[in-house]
TrEMBL record:
Residues 5-198 form the Calcineurin-like phosphoesterase domain. This is Calcineurin-like phosphoesterase domain-containing protein. GO terms for molecular function: hydrolase activity. It comes from the Bacteria. SUPFAM superfamilies: Metallo-dependent phosphatases. InterPro entries: Calcineurin-like_PHP, Metallo-depent_PP-like, Metallophosphoesterase_sf.
């Protein structure tokens, strides 16, 4: 039995046209939830968010939409237009968002959703107010009785960054990256969804803690760090959660080609 059918998209970078986004959304059929993992509007302009809002209402009026911000949604540490979009796209947001800037939503009796919105400054992400969003995350997981926990955060953690090297600086400031990872390692059946990298998507399963790490790539053209390219056309991800585990399907934006199908029993 499938408990949820979820579409994942990231790094839309909407500028003047919605053509690429329309193509991406057309690959996601009969979903109950659409999760947008940051960098929604390229310049964080209200008119850009409104263009997407119109498109979502036309194509996904029956699906609930939840999102988190990326660095392009928070220029100069100002997320005013993003927060306005958040409330327009889902009228639940005012009741979901905590004062720290994160949100919690119980999707159904089996699945909950936590959205984190780190700030971006000087090419690094951080959780303000001494990491209150991480405290919110830990408390939300401690209280939850759900089987699966989906966490959305635009930058990936360093241990699951597809670009990682031994001497790489984490996208999130090191102390908070380590704290964030530690919280996840104390829990099980966590699905962390990130974006930001603009690489072909990666799916990593930590069988020690039974947690899944999905880096969603981008709906924009993507390449590997070595330039080889895998899903160069951009991608969307379909995540199906059922009692047996997780089904993950990665589709190209411009074709019907399926680039990855993966099942993990957790």
């Amino acid at each position: 039995m499938i408990n949820a059918k979820i579409g994942l998209i990231s790094d839309l970078h909407l500028y003047k046209k919605t053509t690429n986004i329309e193509r991406a959304l057309s690959k996601l059929h009969d979903i109950e939830l659409l999760l947008i993992v940051g960098d929604i509007a390229d310049r964080a302009e209200e008119k850009q968010y409104d263009m997407l809002l119109t498109l979502l209402k036309e194509q996904f009026n029956d699906a609930a939409v939840y999102c988190v911000s990326g660095n392009h949604d928070n220029p100069a540490r100002d997320d005013t237009n993003y927060r306005l979009f958040e409330r327009k796209v889902n009228n639940e947001y005012p009741s979901l968002i905590d004062d720290c800037g994160a949100f919690y939503k119980c999707i159904n009796e089996h699945i909950d959703l936590i959205g984190l919105n780190p700030t971006y400054c000087q090419k690094q992400f951080f959780f303000p107010d001494k990491g209150r969003q991480l405290e919110f995350l830990q408390q939300s997981l401690n209280r939850s009785s759900c089987n699966y926990h989906i966490i959305m955060c635009h930058p990936p953690l360093i241990l699951h960054n597809p670009q990682r090297t031994t001497d790489m600086t984490p996208y999130i400031v090191a102390e908070q990256d380590k704290r964030f990872q530690g919280i996840l390692d104390m829990n099980r059946n966590v699905i962390l969804v990130s974006g930001h990298t603009h690489l072909s998507p990666t799916v990593e399963f930590d069988d020690t803690h039974n947690n899944m790490y999905i880096n969603d790539g981008s709906i924009c053209p993507t390449v590997q760090k070595d330039g080889s390219g895998k899903i160069q056309q951009g991608n969307v991800i379909l995540l199906e959660i059922c009692s047996e585990g997780l089904f993950i399907t990665v589709k190209g934006v411009h074709t019907d080609k399926i680039f990855m199908e993966k099942f993990v029993g957790i």
